[in-house]
From TrEMBL:
Its EC number is 4.3.1.17. One of its GO terms (molecular function) is threonine deaminase activity. It is an enzyme of class 4 (lyase). The keyword Lyase applies. Residues 14-149 form the Tryptophan synthase beta chain-like PALP domain. It comes from Euroglyphus maynei (Mayne's house dust mite). InterPro entries: Ser/Thr_Dehydratase, Ser/Thr_deHydtase_PyrdxlP-BS, TrpB-like_PALP, TrpB-like_PALP_sf. SUPFAM superfamilies: Tryptophan synthase beta subunit-like PLP-dependent enzymes (SSF53686). Keywords: Lyase, Pyridoxal phosphate. This is L-serine ammonia-lyase. Its cofactor is pyridoxal 5'-phosphate. The keyword Transcription does not apply.
Amino acid sequence: MESPIKKFFEGNIYIRTPLVESIELRKYCAGRQVYLKMENCQPSGSFKLRGISNLCKYAVSNGFTELVCPSHGDAGLATAFTAMKLQIPCHVVVGRKTPMVVCDALRSYGATLERFGDTWEEANQRAIETNTNTKTAFLVHPFDHLAIW
């Protein structure tokens, strides 16, 4: 019988990114080879997609049908991109100071966007409040969940 944990990690949403040798950093490391992992090549633009996509797939495998995420950038982009791939609704709460380019990218992935507060903590509290009004939405914490680690 197939493990349910193995099942939700199959079919990764993130991509395998290249390693690029850094000649410049080699100078500072006693001639040792130094490689850069090019996570900026992920579809959402950062390493966050790896853990966040696993967390979102975990949520869906447990019956949740929508995602809510507090973010000022990378976590929200990863959540919105994953929701688009999973074809489920996504609501991202960002601070009022979040750059428009990030807000536009979130919308391009199909996320609804709410600008609230000046700090991540305020956006997080608003996301928690938004999420408590429904039994179908999963709160995607940007870093604090076993499926992300």
